[in-house]
Amino acid sequence: MICQTVKKGIDCIFMKKSGCGYNGGKCHPIVDKCEGCGRIEEFPSGKYCSVYPDPRIKWQNHSCNFATHVKKESKASKTTLNALKASKRRAAGRI
Is this model's pTM higher than 0.90 or not? Predict the structure, then answer.
């Protein structure tokens, strides 16, 4: 249904005939850690996340999994090289 509380005119899964069904009856504004994210939408009542109704909860334990401005560490860069294989490659002239 179309939101009638905070994000007026936006399709919202929490909106019901009786009003907003989310905890507290409305979406909550973004927190400081959300600044720079590509999912922020600005409304006359403030800035809100387009994906999650309460961004504070997403940032409580770790970084938000929806955040577009946070770079995640890749596990591939922390792999170790087998010393025996490296020496054989070096001897064969492939390095």
Answer: no
Q: ∠ CA(67), CA(24), CA(12), 5° rounding?
A: 55
CB 79 within 8 A of CB 58: no
Give the span between the Cα atoms of 34 and 38, in whole angstroms: 9
Nearest CA to 49 among 2, 4, 10?
10
49/46 Cα distance (integer angstroms): 10
Which tens digits make up the pLDDT trace of 49-74?
Answer: 888 888 888 888 888 888 888 887 76
The conformation of residue 44, written as its DSSP 8-state character, comes to: T
